[in-house]
Amino acid sequence: MLNRKAWLLKGADRLLPLVRRVPFAVQRLTLQQALNRCLAEPLRDGEFEVLRGRWLCLQIADLGLSWYVTLGREGLQIGRQAQAHVSISGNWREFLLLASRQEDPDTLFFRRRLVIQGDTELGLALKNLIDSLDPDVLPVWLWRNLERAGKGLAVQ
């Protein structure tokens, strides 16, 4: 099983950089729909209001990807460029560990595996928001796969 996980992670290391070749319009559409569907309940409850009129830049350094996220009338919106109020950057593996809850967010930030720059108060509010989200807001299939992938990464 460990060999299979190592093989899958090596495959991900090779395939994920190809995402940057996907036209931005497709990235935006996919991300916006996924985020707004998966986070519909917290969005409805106003948990993302901290982003209204403010921009978060998510940078996945090892993949050469960045997206700007804000809260608009239609929910979370993705932009190609914006004046970011805060940036959170790191490698894809760190974001996977964060999303799958296999690593404590504070540990990732204190060890500078994920880095917050800009409005640190906003960054910490967003980090705490992400950390507080119940995995039950995600579709079961998505949470199971995130958890599995994160566990596979955590044992490496």
Automatic annotation (TrEMBL):
<dbReference type="InterPro" id="IPR003033">
    <property type="entry name" value="SCP2_sterol-bd_dom"/>
</dbReference>
<comment type="similarity">
    <text>Belongs to the UbiT family.</text>
</comment>
<comment type="function">
    <text>Required for O(2)-independent ubiquinone (coenzyme Q) biosynthesis. Likely functions as an accessory factor.</text>
</comment>
<dbReference type="Pfam" id="PF02036">
    <property type="entry name" value="SCP2"/>
</dbReference>
<comment type="pathway">
    <text>Cofactor biosynthesis; ubiquinone biosynthesis.</text>
</comment>
<dbReference type="InterPro" id="IPR016830">
    <property type="entry name" value="UbiT"/>
</dbReference>
<dbReference type="GO" id="GO:0006744">
    <property type="term" value="P:ubiquinone biosynthetic process"/>
</dbReference>
<dbReference type="InterPro" id="IPR036527">
    <property type="entry name" value="SCP2_sterol-bd_dom_sf"/>
</dbReference>
<protein>
    <recommendedName>
        <fullName>Ubiquinone biosynthesis accessory factor UbiT</fullName>
    </recommendedName>
</protein>
<keyword id="KW-0831">Ubiquinone biosynthesis</keyword>
<feature type="domain" description="SCP2">
    <location>
        <begin position="33"/>
        <end position="131"/>
    </location>
</feature>
